[in-house]
Amino acid sequence: MSKTKTQLEKFKDAALELECDDDEQSFKERLGNLVRQKPKPEK
User: Fold this and answer.
1) In the chain, what is the greatest distance between 2 CA atoms, to the nearest angstrom?
2) Backbone dihedral angles phi then psi of residue 6, each to the nearest 5 degrees
3) What pLDDT, on a 0 to 100 scale, did the predictor assign at position 2?
4) How far, CA to CA in Å, does 34 sit from each of 4, 10, 17, 30?
5) Quick one: CA dihedral 27, 28, 32, 38, positive or negative?
6) Are 8 and 16 in contact (CB under 8 A)?
7) What is the pLDDT of residues 10-35, one digit of tens each?
8) For position 1, what pLDDT does the model report?
9) Where do runs of H (alpha helix) occur along the chain?
10) What is the pTM assigned to this prediction?
């Protein structure tokens, strides 16, 4: 019988897969790779 993972276990697995760490600079760099700001419209 296979055990289904809890939400916490799924979150931990995802964090490990994404190589998360506590370094704020590293977080900002990775976030910058995922999220791009839309350019401000010229007036």
Assistant:
1) 63
2) -75, 170
3) 62
4) 29, 20, 15, 7
5) positive
6) no
7) 888 888 787 766 777 877 777 777 77
8) 52
9) 7-17, 24-34
10) 0.39
